[in-house]
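Extended Data, panel c. Modelled sequence:
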Amino acid sequence: MAVAIKNQGYTNIKIYNGGIKDWKKAGLPVASIEPLPEYSGAMVTGEEVYAIMQRSENCTDENGNPLLTILDFRIENSLEEADGGLKRIKTRCPVITCLLDEVRLPEQRARIPKEGLVVTITETGNRDDVAMRYLSLFGYTNVKGLEFGMRGWIKSKLPIE
């Protein structure tokens, strides 16, 4: 995200590596207009996602319901762009690319199934908890985050395009 902001011409950008979790753990103040609900969504490993992808040619069960949908919350100006373009998971499963804020739009939510597993993807997996909690506001109970994000997928040498 910091790289994307710097690419817009800003020069006074600093990165807080610990993220909001470490900020809160340190007892530093946080404010929220509307707190997100708690959500017990878990993380799923890249290997687990890959195994689900291999179960079906078209990523559906015997009734035609989706087994897996990938919800990619990364942005084009991520760190990956500096390394030859944004890497994507190579899959036949549906992939929805959007910004997390766009989930508030009914037409965007209509694209996200409430059956099968929905896996959120961020760059490092650090924002997946927020994404899962935000989606739960709209009744999604089938969401898990990709452990270590896209970087973890790449590090595990799973298929990319």
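The longest strand covers residues 68-72. This feature is highlighted in the accompanying rendering.
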